[in-house]
Amino acid sequence: MIFRHFTDSRQNRNSYLIASSTSREAAIIDPLESCLADYEAVLDKRGLRLVYTFQTHEDRHETVAAETLRMRRASIQVGPLRATAVEDRQATHVDEVAKPGSSFSLGELKVEAVAPPRGAECEVAYRVCDYTFAPNRVWIHDSVTGPNAQVQPGFVVQGSCQGTQPTRRPSGLVANERSTRAGVPVERLILEDLHTSLIEKRFSPKEDRIVRTYLEYLEDNEFNHPAAAQLSGQLGDVDRTAVHVLVHNIRWKQIDLDRLPVVLSGQTSKWLRELQTEPQFTDHEKEFLGAYLKLVERNERPPSGPDVAGELSGERSVQWIRKRAHTIRRKQKEFDQPVLILSRKMPLPQTAQRYLTSMRPTPQSNEDARWTA
User: Fold this and answer.
1) Residue 103: how many CB atoms within 10 A of its CB?
2) Angle between helix 60-73 and 36-46 (nearest 10)
């Protein structure tokens, strides 16, 4: 899901743009007159088609904004049941009524109208995936305990966030209060934490631009982390070295806020290891493993470095092969997985073999026996 947050700091109002990354169909929840230009800029830049505007409560300003978008973008205006019962029919127009149980489609995304969570000041809320949108709060559902689980507070937005200062544990205007991280993909947690920091305005203008480009890349590439060169290509006027510097600054700001840092392709942060259940390999390591596993399956034995280089059509040196094997072994050890083996291409000279044999101790324990084997 593509997600963007918008704030009118003068009125202490918030709105949200959501969209399918595949069908490119979009909706705006609680549209704001002051943000119309921003909505259209995002829609045009991302190639999105506005299908719906949703209102969580009856509000004249939001109704005017929704009607403007309906005229400009041919979107369908959806409002709560109460909005159709007001006396001044000319001031309120609703194409479709939202009441708990009704649903709307944005490509593969399903937008459900639900009863407002406790404390939400609105007549109806909208649930998309594991998120429920209310005027000043985005609630995160506990997906571990099932779809009907109690919602937990997520991005808590009380209005304008300008002027807030970074603290170790942010509080006040915005807080990301996800109740659990178990079973949630790391990439999704990173997105949630980045959105929270964007709402709080934690980044400099240059860092903010990097973060937004980073989010766009993840949304459009099935949550695969970008490389610095790919971010640089999307930005156009920022070279790869500058991207590395800015990402480094962003990473440490997130860590200082007790949030998950951004990750570039091939650069897994130590901060994320506690959330991982298996090693993550770089593109080069995956290239090596693809050739290695083919040789194991074909020959039923571990290949040598030259064998793997030959399988890769000689495009990689034996030194390159051994370096990849070394980093893969190290990652496997961190997760107590069987360590990858490269066999020797040529047997050792007989004298060297006798020397190594004489150096091996007589097994006295399980550890010695394993070493000898």
Assistant:
1) 12
2) 40
Q: What does the radius of gyration of the chain's CA atoms come to, in whole angstroms?
A: 27
Confirm if 53 and 70 have CB atoms less than 8 A apart: yes
The dihedral over CA atoms of 364, 365, 368, 373, expressed in degrees to the nearest 10, equals: 100
- Residue that the structure tokens 């993840």 belong to: 218
Q: Check: pTM over 0.85? Answer yes or no.
A: no
* Whole-angstrom distance, CA of residue 171 vs CA of residue 152: 16
- Which residue type, as a one-letter code, is found at position 189? L
What SS3 state is found at 156?
strand
User: Which phi and psi (to 5°) does residue 221 adopt?
Assistant: -130, 40
Contact 80, 98 (CB under 8 A): yes
- The model's pLDDT over 68-79, given as tens digits with 9 standing for 90+, comes to 999 999 999 999
| Residue found under tokens 């020397």 | 355
Q: Which amino acid is at 147?
A: P
Cβ density class 67-91: b for 16+ within 10 Å, e for less: bbbbeebebbbbbbbebeeeeeeee
Rounded CA separation 327/325 (Å): 6
The bridge status of strand 76-80 relative to strand 2-8 is: unpaired
Nearest to 38 by CA among 1, 5, 76, 80: 5
- Tokens describing residue 204: 């400099």
User: What are the extents of the domains in the chain?
Assistant: 1-141, 161-277, 283-359
Residue 292: pLDDT band (50, 70, 90) is very high
Query: 1-141: which CATH topology?
Result: Metallo-beta-lactamase; Chain A (3.60.15)
Taking the mean position of all CA atoms in its chain, how far away is CA 166?
22
